[in-house]
Amino acid sequence: MGAILTNLLELYAKLVGLGLLGFILGRKLPNTVPSGLAQFLFYVGVPISIVSFLYQTDLNGQIWIAPAIAYLAILLGALLAWVAIKWQAYMTNTMPQQPTQGSLLLAAMVGNTGYLGFPITLAMVGEKYFAWALFYDLLGSLFGAYGLGVALAATFGRNVSNYWQITKAIFINPALWSFGFGLLLRQVTIPNLVEFCLDKLAWIAVALSLVLIGMRLSQLKSWSSLPQVGISLAIKMLIVPLILGSILPLFGVTGSAALVIVLQMAMPPAFATLVIAETFNLDRDLAVTALAAGAIVLLVTLPFWLWLF
Length: 309
Fold this sequence. Notes:
By secondary structure, the chain is mainly α. The chain has a single domain (2-308), classed as Na+/H+ antiporter like fold, CATH 1.20.1530.20. Helices cover 78% and strands 0% of the residues. The chain contains 13 helices and no strands. The chain has helices at residues 2-28, 32-56, 65-92, 98-109, 117-124, 130-156, 163-171, 174-185, 192-218, 226-246, 255-265, 271-279, 284-308.
């Protein structure tokens, strides 16, 4: 228990410290810097991290069940959010605008299983079970966001955008290609120096991803959408992980592997929800508020999941 508490405190120091650094830099630097950092991480940093961690991680066990659980979590989140919207309309006799409904559904569906899920998994569970987080994100969250998420956004958005752009976003995603390359690289032995350099670059990318989250938070101008966001966050970060986490033993997933899956399910809304909201003209302010509030709520909910699982 003492080791877990120590790891948690170290994790909080990194999350808050790097996030605060990013928040300060986001206020001081030009608006182009966060976008540039996001592009660097998307095309270079995250792919290097995936290759490095995948080379070191253990792929034994039932890791292929991780994406299936991700899809269950996404579908359950969407269903519960839809029920909540209908219940609110019934109780108040007012129905949110279509773009707002779309953003509420997205916020309850897809979590930040990459930029936040990866470093939290590595800090609290270690590299041995990192493959569970990796498979959950790349084969679950990614396709859930740009598959079902895009379909919902097209339904609730004011305008339908170019579907070819969304298709390209999936299939030319560097993270997916680096995932395949990392699997191939496991078949060979690389020099110790190369492995060392890859590992250091991977951890630098993880740190930069936390700085980027702070930069994104610094761009939030209003919390006016917070009351509407609350129900989506409750569904995404509490109800869905609690329901599915409790039945993971039925799938044969227990111990540290179960903890990784629960942590991934309990992550706040993903950056992808903001990208989709902007692409399909959903409620952007609500999407940004969901990202910011979710990151703060995570500091409170994380110890609960570590205690429970």
